[in-house]
Design brief:
This protein is mainly beta. It has a single domain, classed as Outer membrane protein transport protein (OMPP1/FadL/TodX) (Porin, Beta Barrel). The protein contains three helices and 22 strands. Mean pLDDT is about 90; it is low at about 1-25.
Length: about 425
């Protein structure tokens, strides 16, 4: 009977291997903190620790046995290689140098005395991307622009990071059922060396996209968690889209005079469902299913095409379904081991590769592993590692007014390594 339980929880993982291509869940980071990362982000259906609960389903915080303060810090190291071919301009490949991107995470959970309620606050890096490719005359896409004798755009650089503050109040409606609700306050910034999301200058060049600041966004979330019996738990959470004020960019036109541009974007609605099994001694099995509504977002979900004024309308991202599977095993009184796996459906079609060179997040299978060492009865030290397995996207060179160029191609090859450490203090 219990072996059928294991089969049911990992069945989704088998589906992930059956498709021709399964890609990443877009700009939203799949997990937060060392514990949640180690379990592939699969904690919607049960309470493991504070960061995982606040990241995916605050309704589970009522099941944490004590107050908790958690800190996490992760470094994301991304490798990217860009190759391109253009008629009469040859072919070439170049490697980027993005380095390590730091992402901090903090969560606090406190159970209210004399009330069947808990307060939770999370401050987390939840989304982002980055690319750093220098100009390369031997690589057509990275060669000088046509006005200087090339067929490219020079170097390609981008940097985006989004942080969320999500205070939540969770109630125990009964011994088995809990709910949570709260706002999601977001700050985000996207820096581009060439802002192709606005109309080009009179000479056809795009203005700089680095004269900007962090912008504010707002959304909300509601979660539910149910303990079915001594073995089974399930949970669900809905995060509304995050609506931002217009992203403003200060730059200059060809005459050096100031211009101000605005770009509208939203982060997607995210719907999560989770199931957990605690029927084994010292073992927790979890699985999450998530839906990301990218087609309704501005910029990310808009068509991958040029507008009448020459601006890029969007990145052409599709709705994404992802599945995460995780396991936790208590090895000794002091050591806990964890493992997980994540996969998702296509983020965008290969035909949109050209528009996603600076934001290719179509990563494939993501295995993870980690551990926790109990420093004392109240303090725990955790670490995890995720390998974002190599992925590739290939599509045609696309120019405004001409469309796809016959005989051309643009290919991005990437992989990433994510190392996370964290400390949980219970009081």
């Amino acid at each position: 009977m219990r072996w059928w339980t294991i089969c049911g929880l990992v069945a989704g993982a088998i589906i992930g291997f059956s498709g021709d291509r399964c890609c990443g869940q877009g700009i939203i980071l799949p997990a937060g903190g060392a514990v949640n990362r180690a379990m592939g982000g699969a904690t919607t259906g049960t309470a493991i620790e504070a960061i995982g609960s606040m990241y995916w389903n605050p309704a589970t915080i009522t099941r944490l046995q004590s107050h908790e303060l958690a800190f996490g810090f992760e470094g994301i190291y991304n490798n990217i290689e860009l190759s391109s071919t253009f008629p009469n301009a040859g072919s070439g490949s170049s490697r980027g140098e993005q380095g390590v991107t730091p992402v901090p995470t903090i969560a606090w959970v406190h159970h209210l005395k004399h009330y069947e309620a808990s307060v939770g606050v999370g401050l987390m890096g939840v989304a982002g991307f980055g690319t750093n490719l220098r100009a390369d005359p031997s690589n057509p896409l990275l060669s000088p622009p046509p006005s200087l004798g090339g067929v490219g755009v020079g170097g390609i650089r981008s940097d985006a990071l989004f942080f969320q503050l999500n205070p939540n109040l969770a109630w125990k409606l009964s011994d088995r059922l809990s709910v949570a609700v709260g706002p999601v306050v977001t700050m985000g910034k996207i820096v581009l060396d060439q802002n192709s999301f606005v109309a080009p200058n009179a000479d056809g060049s795009y203005p700089r996209g680095d004269g900007t600041r962090y912008h504010w966004g707002m959304g909300a979330q509601v979660g539910v968690h149910c303990v079915m019996n001594d073995c089974w738990e399930l949970g669900a959470n809905v995060k509304t889209p995050t609506w931002f004020e217009p992203f403003r960019y200060f730059s200059e036109d060809v005459a050096g005079l100031p211009r101000t541009d605005k770009v509208n974007l939203t982060l997607p609605m995210v719907v999560s469902g989770g199931l957990a099994y605690r029927g084994f001694d010292y073992v927790v099995l979890t699985t999450d299913v998530r839906y990301f509504d990218y087609t309704s977002t501005e910029a990310f979900g808009d068509p991958p095409a040029y507008g009448a004024d020459g601006r890029v309308q969007g990145l052409g991202w599709k709705d994404v379904f992802s599945v995460a599977v995780g396991v936790q095993m208590q090895l000794t009184d002091h050591w806990i081991a964890r493992g997980g796996y994540l996969f998702a459906t296509d983020l965008f079609d290969d035909s949109a590769t050209f528009f996603n060179v600076a934001s290719d997040l179509s990563y494939q299978h993501v295995p993870s592993a980690g551990f926790t060492y109990k420093l004392s009865s109240r303090a725990l030290l955790s670490a995890s590692y995720q390998y974002v397995a190599s992925w590739s996207s290939t599509g045609p060179y696309i120019l405004a007014g001409l469309g796809p160029i016959p005989g051309s191609s643009v290919t991005t090859d990437s992989d990433a390594h994510i190392a996370t450490v964290g400390v949980n203090v219970r009081y």
